[in-house]
Amino acid sequence: MFEFLKNLFSTKKENNFINLIDILKNDHKNLIEIYQKIDNYIEKNDFTNAKQELKKFINKYNRHILLEDTQLYITLEEQYKDKKQILKVIHSISKDMNSITRAITFFEKKYSEINENNKNEFKEEFREIGTILLDRVELEEERLYPLLNENIK
User: Fold this and answer.
1) Average pLDDT rounded to a whole number, residues 72-95
2) Cα 137 from Cα 144, distance rounded (Å)
3) What is the pLDDT of residues 138-147, one digit of tens each?
4) Whole-angstrom Cα distance, residue 153 to residue 151?
């Protein structure tokens, strides 16, 4: 990540955007891998390890969101400041991400302890988060990130 920050101040703007997209896509890959680990632990009823991996997932997710908020959305808003329709889409995607973040934070707090009484509900809600995560990754990689590439050509 520090390499990315160093590159951010270089004069090659196109490379910075490509690096940012690569980092964000790599985050997606890592988040999905951690999610799958958690799901495997859940299947084995190993909620101790599932909870530990969930902490890793939340930390990685929060760093990813911070990077999107401080780099991606700011850059896109600046680049498309004169294109109201595209800005509207960018703002909508950003607002939707805020809702997802609140839901994940609520989930983490709700399941600070996993036990016999709530493990089935935990499994169900966790799988819902997985569906949302995959949909979100697809949206960002297919619709949002290309906007960044589109404007640097």
Assistant:
1) 94
2) 10
3) 999 999 999 9
4) 6
- How far apart (Å, rounded) are the C-alpha atoms in residues 114 and 1? 33
Three-class HEC string of the chain: CHHHHHHHCCCCHHHHHHHHHHHHHHHHHHHHHHHHHHHHHHHCCCHHHHHHHHHHHHHHHHHHHHHHHHHHHHHHHHHCCCCHHHHHHHHHHHHHHHHHHHHHHHHHHHCCCCCCCCHHHHHHHHHHHHHHHHHHHHHHHHHHHHHHHHCCC
Under 8 Å between Cβ of 130 and 31: no
What integer pLDDT is reported at residue 116 of this predicted model? 87
**Cβ neighbours for 123, distance < 8 A, ≥ 6 positions apart:** 42
**CA-angle at 85, arms to 82 and 91, nearest 5°:** 95
Sign of the Cα torsion 73, 16, 28, 62 reads negative
Q: Which long-range contacts (CB under 8 A, 24 or more apart) does 121-127 make?
A: 122/42, 122/47, 123/42, 126/38, 126/39, 126/42, 127/39
pTM, two decimal places: 0.84
What span, in angstroms and rounded, lies between the C-alpha atoms of 100 and 31?
14
